[in-house]
Design brief:
This protein is of the alpha/beta class. It is built from eight helices and seven strands. The protein has one domain: TIM Barrel. A seven-stranded parallel β-sheet has the order 5-4-3-2-1-7-6. Helix 3 links the parallel strand 2 and strand 3.
């Protein structure tokens, strides 16, 4: 079965002897799942960055502190333009307020946009008018990664080729080139097999959503059902946009 903690351990073990792999996690919901993946990574000697949203489904101060104590980095998973309904000034103020809330718990110098697939607003547009570097933020994961040199792999849609149904969690300007190189993977086993054959790209940013990864079968089937429905909504959102 895919998207279990056991399978995630297999993936990390495969990566341990391979290239340059950076781990990123978007904590959209179920922060306890993130603590489980963070603990597993700690046990295997991995360091990752966990991006927390400023909403009750994600924001759990105890878990944020526990994950940081394991040596992982904490980032802010912002969606301010969506929550402020497109109001740029209000969105910037909201961003600054939540960033400081998170910094009152742990050091934070990296941020990452939350896709909000049903929203008409892309929160990265805030930075067309403001400069996050002036706030002491070193990197925005989408904006400051050179994707001409780094392959982006995400489990959005609960599949590794979910960019086909994703509204924003993808890199459109490079996706066609990656497809031509054969860098398309559906399951975790597809990735592990490519790594074993040394056909996997050497420089990779791997983004997972820990809410999807669990050995609890009730939670596993629930996430499968909900994500399948969500993918239909995403497809409709893409049709509406284009």
């Amino acid at each position: 079965m895919d998207f279990t903690l056991s399978k995630y351990k297999e993936l990390l073990t495969a990566f341990q002897s391979y290239g340059d792999v950076v781990l990123r996690h978007d904590v959209d919901k179920k922060p306890k799942n993130s603590l489980a993946t963070a603990t597993l990574e700690y046990e295997l000697g991995w360091k990752a960055t966990y991006y927390f949203r400023a909403v009750p489904d994600s924001w759990n101060e105890s878990i944020i502190l526990q994950i940081a104590a394991l040596g992982h980095s904490i980032g802010y998973h912002y969606e301010s333009l969506t929550t402020c309904h497109g109001d740029l000034e209000a969105a910037y103020e909201d961003f600054c307020r939540n960033l400081e809330r998170l910094r009152s718990l742990v050091p934070v110098n990296t941020i990452c946009m939350h896709g909000s697939p049903t929203s008409q607003w892309d929160s990265r547009d805030i930075w067309k008018h403001y400069d996050y570097h002036k706030l002491g933020v070193e990197t925005e994961s989408y904006l400051d990664t050179d994707f001409s040199k780094v392959f982006y792999l995400t489990d959005t849609g609960r599949r590794w080729d979910g960019y086909k149904v994703s509204v924003r969690d993808k890199i459109p300007e490079h996706q066609e080139q990656w497809e031509q190189r054969g860098w398309v993977y559906h399951s975790t086993d597809d990735i592990i097999q490519a790594v074993s054959k040394r056909s996997f790209p050497e420089h990779v940013l791997v983004n997972t959503h820990p809410q999807r990864w669990t050995d609890n079968m009730f939670q596993w089937f629930k996430e499968l059902t909900l994500q399948s429905a969500k993918n239909i909504v995403k497809r409709l959102a893409l049709v509406k946009r284009f």
